[in-house]
Write a structure and sequence with these properties.
The complex is a heterotrimer of chains A (112), B (263) and C (442). Chain B has 263 residues and is mostly helical. Helix content of chain B is 79%, strand content 0%. Chain C has two domains: 156 residues, Beta-Lactamase (2-Layer Sandwich), CATH 3.30.450; 166 residues, Histidine kinase-like ATPase, C-terminal domain (Heat Shock Protein 90), CATH 3.30.565.10. In chain C, the strands form three sheets. A five-stranded antiparallel β-sheet of chain C has the order 2-1-5-4-3. In chain C, helix 6 packs parallel to helix 11, helix 8 crosses helix 10 and helix 10 packs antiparallel against helix 11. The chains are: A alpha+beta (112), B mainly alpha (263), C alpha+beta (442).
């Protein structure tokens, strides 16, 4: 696994070197999960831009960030963070939810 | 909570059950003993527990997109194994013991890798509720309903395939395997887009109005043909490319076997 | 092997699970929206109740700290009254209707409703997680029995399918337990319509097979019988001829030998097909096998002496029920086989013993014996070890052991071949099971 990690990071290094200017320009947004709630539950992001969303899970249990509209799905382990790349989005609203607690963990991304 | 656990368990179980039942039906008509499936499920469950308990570590790899990369790797491995299996199966119609063992090994790898990928999510989900007795009944009930629907669908597909005319089974099974494999390729592409390893694009279309992905039929189609309501061009290319590549290679090996037999 | 029972149970149960579970899910979803509508209605009622209070009343009421509910009353943009579990800001924008939102660390279902005066807004909220679990508790009670009853249905399906397939299993059992020579028809009474054709066809096949066997036996017996007379005539003419010709003519001896062989063959065929089992049983009587063996040995004693062979008889009086002539034939065939295949100066031992399970006859010789892989084949008619290469100076037609086996079967006895207790040679063991009527007689 360590070898895999190394070769993977090497590949990533090559990729990030070629895509460095674009990566630097990516705006970052942060969302927290606390008590199975998204905080903030409404996030306004620029439209037609790729963004980097960092989800911090402040709960001790795992959560899965999921959005059918955004086509994203990622497990965020308890007390950890996860990086999700989104977009570029057309202007509009994109609901997301925590698949493990969908009744309370709900939120919406508004692209403007 | 009931519906949530139904959807989570159903989605994962259905896909594994479908692969297993198609491979079991193919084993049956090729005269391969079915005991490999016990090994495959056992290995898969073991692997998924190990993977689930190490998700936190895996997530931190590759600057926080390790999960996507490893999952994509698993999906691609399943796809590649399915391709090798389908081609090998088409090339060796009258399988001798050595061929059968190789086919068995391939099927074991496919099924256990698929279960590692599918099962780990169920374990992560369930581990969040350990000790929370208030949610025990709805989650258990939902899990049972989801697993019940998934396994029942798999069993019906298995007997449906076996009850078809003998010479149709390999063709239909190959098409089914191709669509499941294409779904894997599409998923892998999506995961790499999410990890920003592949370019992100606008969706080609959006059919979520007619068939939402979170409905039971949406889940069924997701497992069967890798249904995605709003795929991007890269994803669609991976899907259809994967589908055609498998079918093309199978057709080629069939053709070569035929011309071999004639010449 | 594909099992019909497994197929039926799995497919029925899978279909039922799919239909029932999907129906239960639909029911769950429909009930969920019903309960949510009901709870939304309660929010409206609460908003109207709050609206009906006079602003002065709020000043007098004590602070409310709800768990499941929360409210805010705003007048002209100023907070008039709120429950302690809400923040000081608006919990939802002042547009009429329902929405979901977060505050105070929970997710809420919030209703914003304008009051009876234009300046007043009522905001009431209910905790989303509690709403869901309340609704789910109610619905689970209805859905759970359906899901729990499914294993029960599985067991019932398993039993019912098993019961439905019982006639098929019984037929298979009847066919499986049939003796290879039992060609009696299967009972048709009580068989289901689906199996009637199978049983009819099987019975007609049995019938035709039995007739064919019968014809074969009768043909052989008739032919042998018809051959007896010309052979007798031949023997007489042979005798006359031998008187006319001078003695010791080698050709004459060969001719004589040939006639004896034909005679022997015909007698053996007649013994083999003497009669049907039913006819046989009628002649059964209680007899002492030990005495019978002694008589047979003494009758053919000259044969053994001429070849310088030692023969001994061991054992004691052993009674069984059987056909005297048939058992004599059996003993004679075994003894002559033993004599034939044992070189001059060899040993033959006959033992007759009885115990609680029955009577055992054992004939052993010190000849070369038979290879184990030949054991099955020696019972075949006209089979001789070594085939055409078989060289024995004695008469033989390859029917001896076939007749022995035939007689053994008629007595429901069991025959086993093995190695003799001499340094080499064959041991033939025949176990006659104890019959109730013989036991009583002894």
């Amino acid at each position: 696994m360590a070898a895999l990690y190394r070769s993977g990071s090497l590949l990533l290094l090559v990729l990030s070197l070629t895509a460095l200017p674009a990566a630097a320009a990516k705006p970052e947004f942060k969302i927290e999960i606390r008590n199975h709630l998204f905080e903030p539950s409404e996030l306004v992001v620029p439209a037609n831009t790729k963004i980097k969303l960092i989800v911090y899970n402040r709960d001790s249990t795992a959560e899965e960030f999921e959005s059918y509209e955004l086509n994203r799905e990622k497990v965020v382990m308890g007390n950890r963070k996860a990086v999700i790349f989104i977009g570029p989005l057309k202007p509009g609203t994109y609901p997301f939810f925590g698949e493990f607690h969908p009744n309370t963990a709900q939120g919406i991304i508004i692209a403007e | 909570m009931l519906l949530t656990s139904v959807i989570i368990v159903l989605r994962e179980v259905l896909e594994a059950a479908l692969i297993i039942s198609v491979l079991l039906a193919l084993s049956r008509i090729a005269g391969i003993r079915l005991n490999w499936v016990r090994w495959a499920i056992g290995l898969g469950v073991l692997g998924s527990v190990i993977y689930a308990s190490n998700t936190a570590i895996v997530s931190d790899w590759f600057d926080g997109v390790g999960q996507e990369v490893i999952n994509a790797l698993l999906q691609i491995s399943v796809y590649v194994c399915l391709v090798i299996f389908a081609v090998y199966f088409a090339a060796t119609h009258k399988a001798d013991d050595a061929n059968k063992q190789r086919l068995q090994a391939l099927m074991t790898v496919v099924v256990s890798l698929a279960i590692v990928r599918e099962g780990s999510e169920i374990f992560l989900y369930l581990s969040g509720f350990v000790g929370d007795m208030t949610q025990f009944t709805p989650i258990l009930t939902g899990g049972l309903v989801g697993a019940g629907i998934g396994i029942s669908a798999g069993a019906l597909v298995y007997y449906l395939l076996l009850n078809l005319k003998r010479d149709i089974i390999p063709y239909l099974s190959t098409v089914l395997l191709a669509s499941v494999a294409a779904g894997m390729a599409g998923q892998a592409a999506l995961l790499l887009i999410q990890a920003d390893w592949l370019p992100s694009q606008q969706a080609l279309w959006d059919s979520s109005q007619w068939l939402p992905e979170d409905s039971v039929s949406g889940q069924l189609l997701y497992a069967l043909i890798g249904y995605e309501a709003s795929p991007t061009p890269v994803q669609a290319a991976a899907y259809f490319g994967g589908f055609l590549l498998l079918l093309g290679l199978v057709a080629l090996s069939r053709y070569r076997r035929k011309s071999h037999a004639d010449g | 092997m594909r099992s019909i029972r497994t197929f039926l149970v799995v497919v029925l149960l899978a279909t039922m699970t799919l239909v029932v579970f999907i129906a239960a899910l639909r029911g769950y979803r429909a009930s969920m929206s019903q309960v949510e509508a009901l709870l939304d209605g309660q929010l409206v009622e609460m908003a109207r109740l709050l609206d009906s209070l006079h602003p002065d009343d709020f000043a007098m009421t004590e602070a409310y700290d709800g768990r499941a509910f929360a409210f805010q009353v705003w007048v002209s943009g100023k907070l008039l009254k709120k429950s302690l579990n809400t923040p000081d800001e608006l919990i939802a924008p002042l547009t009429p209707g329902y929405r979901d939102g977060n505050f105070s660390g929970y997710r809420w279902r919030i209703l914003a409703q304008p009051g009876h005066t234009h300046e007043q807004w009522i905001l009431v909220a209910q905790r989303a997680d509690l709403r869901i679990s309340l609704a789910e508790e109610v619905i689970l009670e209805a859905v759970l029995p359906i899901i729990v009853s499914l294993p029960l249905a599985g067991v019932l399906i398993w039993l019912i399918v098993g019961r439905g397939l019982q006639p098929l299993r019984r037929l298979a059992q009847q066919l499986g337990s049939k003796r290879s020579d039992d060609l009696s028809p299967l009972p048709i009474a009580g068989a289901p319509a689906e199996l009637r054709q199978v049983i009819d066809s099987t019975n007609s096949l049995f019938n035709r097979l039995a007739l064919a066997f019968d014809r074969e036996k009768r043909f052989a017996a008739d032919a042998a019988h018809e051959l007896r007379t010309p052979i007798s005539v031949l023997k007489i003419q042979m005798y006359n001829l031998s008187r006319d010709l001078q003695r010791g003519n080698p050709n004459l001896d060969k001719l004589n030998d040939g006639i004896e062989r034909v005679n022997h063959l015909v007698e053996q065929i007649l013994a083999l097909y003497r009669s049907t089992p039913e006819h046989f049983m009628a002649n059964f009587s209680r007899l002492d096998l030990h005495a019978l063996a002694r008589d047979t040995i003494s009758r053919y004693y000259d044969e053994f002496r001429s070849r310088d062979q030692q023969i001994e008889l061991a054992g004691h009086r052993s009674f069984l029920v059987g056909d005297r002539f048939a058992l004599e034939t059996l003993l004679h065939n075994l003894l002559s086989n033993a004599s034939k295949y044992t070189p001059s100066g060899g040993q033959i031992r006959v033992a007759v013993q009885s115990d609680d399970s029955g009577v055992v006859l054992c004939v052993e010789d010190s000849g070369p014996g038979i290879a184990e892989e030949e054991y099955e084949r020696v019972f075949e008619r006209f089979y001789r070890i070594g085939g055409d290469r078989h060289v024995s100076g004695v008469r033989g037609c390859g029917l001896g052991l076939a007749i022995v086996q035939h007689i053994t079967e008629l007595h429901e006895a069991r025959i086993e071949l093995g190695r003799s207790s001499f340094t080499s040679g064959l041991a033939v063991n025949i176990c006659f099971p104890l019959r109730i009527d013989a036991g009583v007689g002894a």
